[in-house]
Amino acid sequence: MAETLRSGKVLKRTGIALLIAGLLLGTMLRFVPDSEMNDALLVIGIFPIFMIVGGAFLFFRGRQYADKAIAGTIIGDSKPDVLYLRTFLADPSTIGHVFSALLTPTLISGLATEEEQLRDVLQPFGDLVAIGQPGETLPKPGAARLYASGDEWKEVVTNQMHVARLVIIRAGRGEGLLWELKQALEIVNPKKLLILVLNMKKKHYERFREEANSIFQISLPEADAVKRFGRVAGFIRFSADWKPDFLPLRAPYFRTSAYKPYQRLFKFALRPVFEDFVLEWHPPPVSRLTVAVVVILGAIGLLILLAIAASFS
Prior knowledge:
Layout: H1 2-30, H2 39-44, H3 47-76, E1 81-85, H4 94-99, H5 104-108, H6 114-121, E2 127-131, E3 144-146, H7 152-163, E4 166-170, H8 175-187, E5 193-201, H9 202-216, H10 223-226, E6 231-238, E7 244-248, H11 261-269, H12 271-276, H13 288-312
Parallel strand pairs: 1-2, 1-4, 2-3, 4-5
Antiparallel strand pairs: 5-6, 6-7
Helix pairs in contact: 1-3, 6-11, 7-8, 8-9
C-alpha cells in the first residue's frame, strides 16, 4: 500500500509540473509575432498540447493510485460509511477527462471529478464507498471501491445499505439502478436516503422520475418546478413518511467558485441534511477568484463607459 501511495504522489506531482510547464510555454508562444514564426517555432507550438494532455493523464492516474492505496483502509475499518450508488456510465472516462483538460474551465476547476468533490463534502458523515466496475485495474478517482463478481454485487449493496450512515443514489437509467431503488425503499430509513440529480435534461429526469414514482408510490418533484436553464440539479431527500423535498444546487454568487465548483454547491444544498444529523456546518468562504473576476470585469466595463463618454465630449 505504501508503494502504491508513493507512486500516486509521484505521478500527481509530475502531472502538475507538466501542466504548469505546458501552460507557461503556450502563453509565451502566444506573444511571438506572426512575422517571427518559423517552422521550428510551429513545431514547438504543438508541445504545450502534449504537455497539458500528458500532465492531465498523469495527474488523473496518480489520483487513481492514491485512491487504490487508501481504499483498503477505508473499507476495512469499523466506521460508518456513505454508500454511493450510480450507473457505471456516470463514471468519467479517462480519455474524456484527460482531453477536457485542454478546456480552460476544466483546468481552472482543478481537474477534480464530481465524485471527488462529493466525497470531500460528505466526509463529516463518513467515507464515501461505491461498487467498482468489474474488470477495472484502477478505480476512478472519488469513492473507495468495493468489488464483487456476478450477482454478488447485490448482496454487497444490501449489506452496505444496512450499515451505511447515508445512502446516495445518483439518478440515471438501468435495471441495476432500479433494483437499488427498490432495495433502498425496503432497507433504508427514508431520512438516510438521498437521490442526487446532477445536471439532467428535463426529458431524462422525467423518465427517471416516472420509474422512481412507480417504485416509491409517491410523486417526486416535477422538472418544471425545479429546473434551471433547462437542467435539473440537486438532491431529493425524504421525511420519515417518504415525503420528498428538493434541495437545489445553488449558492450565494460570491461563495461560488470555478475551482471545484460542485464542492461548494453540494455543501450549500446539503445544509439541511447536516442539520438533521446534528453535524457542524460551515459555509464555504467567499471566493477570491470570483471577486477578482467581478472586479476586473467591472473595471473593464467602467473603462469602456468612460471611453464612450469621452468620444461624445
